[in-house]
């Protein structure tokens, strides 16, 4: 390969690493051209599957700062550069490897951290992003419903209390007057007391009249 072609090939792999959320290294020895095409179709928009030369992949990995790939880059190598859901891509590769044992998943990289084959398998066993988002949305809606219930409960109680008071007021309108009849009765009490005290005030006048009469009698 000419030097310019080699540099261009390395630059292309570097660009694929930089543009991807992760990458999975595989050995495709024994797969037919048709099976490779089927694998690419099964990955869909989640990943692009590219056959690479090991020496060029090593150069590209070193350029982007990925370590730990040297031991994985042996034999016929193809890399799945994951552009979409990492978990879905890992599931697609796992399922295809089960149906086609000649595809060997050797490891990969996620967010710049190397992963071995076991870690890729664990990644594939996780729930997809859509499922996790769905569960999160369900949990948020449940929490929101509980919050709305808690906020509305006191209002509902207040409404029931207001309704009960209104019904009672319709039966006894004096409730709305704040018991206006009671002060009127209280105001009449002093008048009654004054009436009761009046005879006591008249007693001295009567005594004075009697004394005047006695005086007149004595003078006679």
Automatic annotation (TrEMBL):
PROSITE patterns: RIBOSOMAL_L10. Residues 210-220 have a biased composition (Acidic residues). The keyword Lyase does not apply. CDD domains: Ribosomal_L10. One of its GO terms (biological process) is translation. Signal peptide: none annotated. InterPro entries: Ribosomal_uL10 (IPR001790), Ribosomal_uL10-like_sf (IPR043141), Ribosomal_uL10_bac (IPR022973), Ribosomal_uL10_bac_type (IPR047865), Ribosomal_uL10_CS_bac (IPR002363). Coiled coil: none annotated. GO terms for molecular function: structural constituent of ribosome. It holds the Pfam family Ribosomal_L10. Residues 182-193 have a biased composition (Low complexity). Residues 176-220 are annotated as: Disordered. Keywords: Ribonucleoprotein, Ribosomal protein. GO terms for cellular component: large ribosomal subunit. Belongs to the universal ribosomal protein uL10 family. This is Unannotated protein.
């Amino acid at each position: 390969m000419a030097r310019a072609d080699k540099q261009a090939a390395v630059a292309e792999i570097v660009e694929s690493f930089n543009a991807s959320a992760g990458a999975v290294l595989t050995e495709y020895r024994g797969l037919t051209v048709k099976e490779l095409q089927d694998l690419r179709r099964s990955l869909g928009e989640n990943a692009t599957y590219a056959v690479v030369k090991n020496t060029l992949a090593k150069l590209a990995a070193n350029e982007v700062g990925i370590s730990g790939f040297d031991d994985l880059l042996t034999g016929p190598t193809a890399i799945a550069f994951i552009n979409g859901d990492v978990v879905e891509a890992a599931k697609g590769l796992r399922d295809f490897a089960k149906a086609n044992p000649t595809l060997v998943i050797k490891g990969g990289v996620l967010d710049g951290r190397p992963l071995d084959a076991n870690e890729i398998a664990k990644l594939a066993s996780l729930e997809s992003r859509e499922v996790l988002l769905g569960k999160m949305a369900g949990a948020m809606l449940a929490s929101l419903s509980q919050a709305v219930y808690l906020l509305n409960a006191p209002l509902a109680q207040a409404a029931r209390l207001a309704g009960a008071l209104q019904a009672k007021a319709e039966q006894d309108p004096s409730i709305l007057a704040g018991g206006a009849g009671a002060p009127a009765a209280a105001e009449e009490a002093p008048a009654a007391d004054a009436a009761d005290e009046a005879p006591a005030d008249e007693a001295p006048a009567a005594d004075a009249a009697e004394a005047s009469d006695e005086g007149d009698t004595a003078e006679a």
